[in-house]
Amino acid sequence: MVEVRMIFRNALVFAAAVALLSACTRSQSSPAKINACSLNTFCETSESDAEMDSIIDVRRAEMLDYMSIEIGTTDTFMIAERPESDLMRLLSTALLETAQKISRERDLPMPIMSLMNFGGIRTTMPQGKITIRNIFEISPFENQIVILSGSGSIMKAMLEHVAEQGGEAISGATMTFRDHKMIEAKIAGEEIDESKTYVIAANNYVAEGGDGFLMLCQCQRYDTNIMIREMLIDYIKETTARGQHVIAPTDVRITKLDDNE
């Protein structure tokens, strides 16, 4: 019984730590939350309170050490800003490249585009050393990578919704919009063929219709069970292992025209 209680409390502490790391103001596959009163009640009824507190202190210290691990360096301060920004391009590029790697390893359909919603990027990337804590703060949700296969008409509707939203994080596609209405869009450099099948990478939040992307619910879905933040941590580690600093792509993917253009 004591062992079960210890496991339970350790899990609660980790969940609380993750919750404290995020500064989220809305729900989107929300990070784990903890009820302090419930935890206190559980603690009061515990038969080995001191022993458990000691274990919690150890786990807390281990977690803080883990969050402080440096995994890379960037020379610029990156933000998430519509219609697109350096951090949005970095994350969508990492998503596409990682999903393509997964597809090769698991013999899944190969994505040629990626989509990540703006609301899933919760803060900035600091200039200088990048820690695991930074990644948890940028991506505090439990969102995972999914691969979606759907018709060109679905993809066109998806990009039209990107325009309506004022921009999202995309890679492998380009688009132009004015007054929240799409003017043109291309995937992999080509006009969208509504009768053709396209494969994209996304997070499970938008794949399930989050942020109004209901059209993606019509796609065939392949789950990878890899979290977005795990993907980003690995992507930065691999970049660092090559002796490189983390640099956001600079290509223009979304163009917003003024009314007089």
Lateral strand order in the biggest sheet: 5-2-9-4-10
How far is the N terminus from the C terminus?
Answer: 70 Å
Tally of separate helices: 8
Relative helix content: 40-55%
What about the largest sheet? 5 strands, mixed
Mean pLDDT: 86
What's the shape?
A: globular
Number of strands: 11
Order of helices and strands: HHHEHEEHEHEEEEEHEHE
Unreliable stretches (pLDDT < 50, length at least 5) are 1-27, 29-43
Can you give a write-up of this model?
By secondary structure, this protein is α+β, with helices and mostly antiparallel strands. It is built from eight helices and eleven strands. The chain has helices at residues 2-21, 36-44, 49-67, 86-106, 132-138, 152-165, 204-207, 228-241; strands at 70-74, 113-116, 128-131, 144-151, 169-171, 173-178, 181-187, 190-191, 197-203, 220-227, 254-257. The strands form three sheets. A five-stranded mixed beta sheet has the order 5-2-9-4-10. It starts with a helix and ends with a strand. Mean pLDDT is 86; it is low at 1-27 and 29-43.
Write the layout of secondary structure elements.
Layout: H1 2-21, H2 36-44, H3 49-67, E1 70-74, H4 86-106, E2 113-116, E3 128-131, H5 132-138, E4 144-151, H6 152-165, E5 169-171, E6 173-178, E7 181-187, E8 190-191, E9 197-203, H7 204-207, E10 220-227, H8 228-241, E11 254-257
Parallel strand pairs: 2-9, 6-11
Antiparallel strand pairs: 1-3, 2-5, 4-9, 4-10, 6-7, 7-8
Helix pairs in contact: 1-3, 4-8
